[in-house]
């Protein structure tokens, strides 16, 4: 299971999400949200890739392929996003039920 700290981007400290802040993994194995990677890519466009903010290893991308298509989704984190949302929904239902039984 992924730790809570691993469910947020270490660049912007926002939680990953299935929309917008999709967790993408670089070739070095480090994961960041797509908006942060897009910013890095724009800043480092001359590299035709992205330099990892943690280890500086460069992940090359094809010029004809947009960045989201060039990087895989971190499926371990992706699966945890769903489980976290389901758990929050169950917790809310439990709290709602507990209020009505008192």
TrEMBL record:
InterPro entries assigned: RING_finger_E3_ubiq-ligases, Znf_RING, Znf_RING/FYVE/PHD, Znf_RING_CS
Pfam families per UniProt: zf-RING_5 (PF14634)
GO molecular function: ubiquitin protein ligase activity; zinc ion binding
Keyword Glycoprotein attached: no
Xref: SMART domains: RING
Record bears the keyword Zinc: yes
Any GO BP: protein ubiquitination
Domain RING-type: 9-56
Keyword annotations from UniProtKB, A to Z: Metal-binding, Zinc, Zinc-finger
Name of this protein: RING-type domain-containing protein
Organism name: Eleginops maclovinus
The organism's taxonomic lineage, starting at the top: Eukaryota, Metazoa, Chordata, Craniata, Vertebrata
